[in-house]
Amino acid sequence: MKYLVKMYISLIESLGIYTTDQLYELISTKQHGMPISRHRAAVMQSRVFFFSVIFAVLVPAWSVIDILYLPQALWSELLLIRLLAAASFAVIAWQTRREPDLMLARMLLAAMLAITPLFYLLSDQIIADQQLGGTATILAEVYALLPFVMVAGLTLFPLAISEFLSYAVPIFLVVVYSVYPENPAEIAEAVSTLWLLILLLGVGLFASMTQLRYMLSQVSHASYDILTGMLSRRAGIEILELQFRLALMSEKPLSILYFDLDNFKAINDTYGHDTGDTVLRVASQQIRDTVRKGDSVIRWGGEEFIVVLPTADHKEANDVITRIMLAGLGNRPDGSPVTASIGIAEVQQDRLKDWKSQVELADHRMYTAKSNGRARCIGVGGQSTEWVTALEQSAGF
User: Fold this and answer.
1) Does 351 fall in a domain?
2) What is the domain extent for residue 50?
3) What pTM did the predictor assign?
């Protein structure tokens, strides 16, 4: 038991896992943020493109060897399925040039992995009906290695455990079906083949998790602000661009909230930057805990934050603002509540043409809120919601 515990500890340390959240990130992708999802999608699509192009060229090119060493009746049938497979790989390669999207990347990887097992099953059926000898027998054995090639290919993709198994299990079942012994003499060969495949799957799973853990670490450092845990401005701009394009294409609403903490400079000047950092951390945590699950919270600069609300119209944005006001942003060092001046801009209602103009409009409304007395929000159409008013309505005044 102690040996197993030591092995487990060694394994998780080699993967850089020190918390249950980090372990869960390797099991499932449900908690992955948009930056890691987009980065994974870009990596997966680029690698699917590379392999699909290689296979689209090599699969039909191998027909030259088939023609030289296999009977005409056999190589002519194999040539047909080779051409179909090559065409399929070419289509997949063409589809990978689209904008990175995780769902698309998963589908393209699944399609690429599906072609080879299907080709393997068809070729195995064709070759089984032939009486071969010499070099032709060796070539026929090469076809049996195709599933192992695809398992080896899986090691090059940053996949969570759940994703890896969804791709590996069908390949494993195809091999089980193809090597299932029809007589006792074939049992030993079937067991050895499956054992080798399981070994490769284990290595592939570890390689995929290692890549994913490294990517999570790198993207986290590059995409998230260390102090507040919010998205960095650079990562936030990518999300704003993407969400704005999606909103225009789908003609759905998209709101953003522009926050500026009131009189924050006075905290730094009076109590020091360490105290100011604490106020920032608490305020950012309150915002992240209050917004919706699919919303993105960005540290835009200093004490300025932007919240991206996909599919939220200006009324829903006002509801989010009210919830944030009721939840509060923590307290200042003197015990008074932290407040913010907030501006709202919504794509459809404000008829905006690009994400920059949306940020500028929300910023302008935030300054209007600040000039009107702070601790309030200016929404679409100039609607004003004061912090005190929201609290009083909650208390029933």
Assistant:
1) yes
2) 2-223
3) 0.70
